Description:
- Helix content is 19%, strand content 18%.
- The chain is of the alpha/beta class.
Amino acid sequence: MAKVCASFFPAVRSFAKQTRNQPYKAMSQNKTTTGGKNAALHQAKKGKNDEFYTQLTDIENELVHYKSFFRGKTVLCNCDDPRISNFFKYFALSFNILGLKRIITTCYKNNCPDLFSRNDTEQAVYLIYDGNDGKSMPDWDKVDVKPLHGNGDFRSAECIELLKQADIVVTNPPFSLFREYVAQLVAYNKKFLIIGHQNAITYKEIFPLIKDNKIWLGYGFKGGAGHFISNYEDIASASNHIAGMIRVSGVHWFTNLEHKRRHEELILYKRYNPEEYPKYDNYDAINVDKVNEIPCDYDGVMGVPITFLDKYNPEQFEILGATESEGKGFSNGLFNKDFTITQPLVRGTRIYKRIFIRKIQP
């Protein structure tokens, strides 16, 4: 098996290079609109065709950390154009190596399996793929595509029936519907690995799940940003620019699949002093500006940037809450109600939102 794996995944990488400039979907339901500061995203938000397409290499780079979870499982990619989807391509190419039972792929407002959706039909299609008789490479012409009754909305009754058949969901859902999408996965008790924006971390529907260790971040995109295929102008610097793509900051993989990095201990080396770590004016906690500067000798409550979740180890820290600017009651009693300003204040100056944590005592 080791020899097969060694020869197979280079083939996937070779295939990724060949299809690097092929988008995996084009769905108005799958709008990657984040409300962030990226000017290109604002431009996209104003338009109707605001899709960004994931590279096969990004899918492979994340999925390689979860191979053991897929043996004997049915995978659902329910925001993807059949046969065109890079998620489908990855799982079809990896079908035998991962030991998959089945792949199910659905799309939105598209009834042509070999074209990206133009959102011009109210009937969509789906496919079910059970492998290619043990052969390592799939025969794309033998992939059977079937019609749905409706437009393929993941919330529709027929798509929910397909969801019920799945063990693990892997896709890039519409950012604008991220709350509803995750709520559905949780309601049906599904394992998942999905792409979202870091702004979702403090959504009132998402943060409690993170706090209760029901959702966490995956390995992520290099530098916390992904290059997506798009027709919009890329404003990335020359060092980050890739022709034909747009650089989107703050994208993450969200999951409830365990992985090794989640349990790596964060090395703490700095010592607490009140000048460097002042208390908030309006919260009962000290402020920590950088995750790598969390003091090693402070056992009280600390406010840290949301990037802390990239390093979060549930055996080392507990998450207590977040600033009330993200939702009433989020601070878990740490907010001083004498203040009307819910953003964290340090010596009268407002700073960016924080997550409140405390070290777990041995």
